[in-house]
Fold:
Amino acid sequence: MQLLAVVALLTIAGGAAPTAVSPFPDTAERRFVAARSYELHKRYPTTAAAQRGGYFRYTDEDRAGIIAYANLRWQSDDHHPSQLWYDERGRLIGADFSRHVTDRTRRPRLWGLAPGRWTHFIEHVHFGTRSGRIRYGAVYVDSYRDAGGDPRHPAAHPIVRLGFATNDRDVRFVFDFPELWVVSVWLVPNPLGAFADTNPSVPVLHRNARDPHVAL
Structure:
């Protein structure tokens, strides 16, 4: 059974990597980060507010202390995030904004953000299963198809066939994560920069945490 590795999901589109971009925002990007932080803390300060707004949890805590919530609206028009990040205490700490990939050689040019901020994610399938508590995972699209699934019409049975659950009832959710450009932003102060991979001000309660796109 083929399991996901985070390095395989975060691919470089179009071959060569872009010029390295500082994790610290420039002037235009600081305005973007400040505005998004104000808006999202006002709208989604807690996980309960996120759930009322149509988001649901789909990962365990990762190595950066992030628990991700998605709304399955992958085209982030009008600055609406496709994913919100919370820490284990339920504090809003960050967000992902995404755009569908129409040209792998061209990163989005939006909102005053440097194109190099956008990371290319390949399509994959996420799921949650329950055996006591909910367990979160993900598989490659090819693996899901090999198990009889259609990622455009996600269903529980392929997850069972892949051995992640004993019956369809134990699969609490399954969804297709399409091929996307994603820009990730910390919405709390980060001494490493608003676009850094980690944030030392965010506690990591589970030191053996997996990355959010790694299957269980």
Remarks:
- Residues 17-122+184-209 form one domain.
